[in-house]
Write a structure and sequence with these properties.
single chain; 328 residues; mainly beta; five-stranded antiparallel β-sheet; 5% helix
């Protein structure tokens, strides 16, 4: 989708054509921490076909998208080392993001046909509550610091992928997805800055995906390109002075940000460290801790291979068996 509205292979992956989707073979993966000096090692969560994860704003839990047979959202408690299932619908549930108070998880579910937004209490109590009703596929990416809006992207065959926002107030499940950034190109993965004043996202307007930043909520008042060698899957460090993203060579990069009032500037991208991490889908498959010092990754489990069913057919087994049995 380099240079137009077609979403191409990236959208195919987001829709669930990757590991764990129907017709695919699940690959077991592990969760691991890294610091600025490099990858540290796995955490004690069980091996599962994870495709995305998010650290809660209070730093105590992980929301996980696991594409096993259940295709559900799970929460891992870091201190207690416990894994808790949050959704139980048999249809695919994916792409979790936290509300700022760490009390709820917003996610996409295909239970009603189209991929629409739902949320659920992170402790597993209560029921799933539907947030949107649309014929278009919708995916959450981040929530504004005041908790009033979720930002995400909406995909349709007619318009491609565009950035939208959805109000979280009110009880209606028919909240409209308000177009926030709608162009003739493809935009993914909007991330709001910690102070709520800037929006980072990826677009293929240059012919390849790069990371851009715009003011928020007046997105047409400015536009700055942050990445220089390709860029996807951006996330802000929690203090807002650093933007992390994955470059065109699948390297984790960091850019220092200077912003004051209407003035915005980005430094030169620098490599964070080398790590072998998995990026199964177009959505962001890593996260940064609240203190900005640790990175959470998904990595393939050592020695794990795709599990495929094998059927062995033996012909003429009855005649062979008779030849092995003693004569009566």
């Amino acid at each position: 989708a380099a240079g137009g509205r077609s979403v191409g292979a990236r959208w195919a992956g987001v829709r669930g054509a990757g590991p764990g989707a129907a017709g695919g073979a699940a690959r077991r993966r592990q969760l691991g921490w890294g610091k600025r000096k490099g990858y540290e090692g796995p955490i004690e969560a069980p091996l599962r076909p994870y495709v995305s994860e998010r650290i809660s704003p209070d730093g105590t839990r992980l929301a996980l998208d696991s594409r096993d047979g259940d295709n559900d959202i799970w929460v891992w408690e870091l201190a207690r080392h416990t894994l808790r299932r949050v959704t139980f619908d048999p249809r695919q549930n994916m792409s979790p993001v936290w509300t700022p108070d760490s009390q709820r998880v917003i996610f996409t579910s295909q239970r009603a046909g189209s991929a629409n937004l739902f949320w659920h209490a992170a402790d597993g109590t209560g029921i799933d509550q539907r947030l949107t009703t649309s014929a278009n596929a919708q995916f959450p990416a981040s929530v504004t610091p005041d908790g009033k809006q979720v930002l995400g992207y909406e995909v349709s065959q007619a318009t491609g992928a565009d950035i939208v926002r959805i109000a979280l107030s009110g009880a209606s499940e028919k909240r409209p997805a308000e177009p926030l950034l709608q162009t003739t190109f493809t935009e993914y993965n909007p991330e709001i800055s910690p102070d709520g004043r800037y929006l980072a996202y990826e677009s293929n307007e240059s012919g390849r995906f790069e990371i851009y930043v715009r003011p928020y909520p007046r997105v047409n008042d400015g536009r700055w390109q942050v990445s220089t060698g390709g860029g996807t899957r951006a996330v802000w460090a929690r203090k807002g002075r650093e933007l992390i993203y994955v470059d065109g060579a699948a390297t984790l990069m960091s850019v220092e940000i200077q912003a004051a009032g209407s003035t915005f500037s980005a430094g030169n991208p620098a490599k964070v460290f080398d790590a072998k991490y998995a990026m199964p889908l177009a959505a962001r498959s890593y996260d940064i801790s609240p203190d900005g010092q640790k990175f959470l990754f998904i990595t393939d489990a050592p020695g794990d291979k795709r599990m495929r069913a094998t059927l062995v057919v033996v012909e003429h087994w009855y005649e062979d068996l008779k030849g092995r049995l003693p004569a009566k």
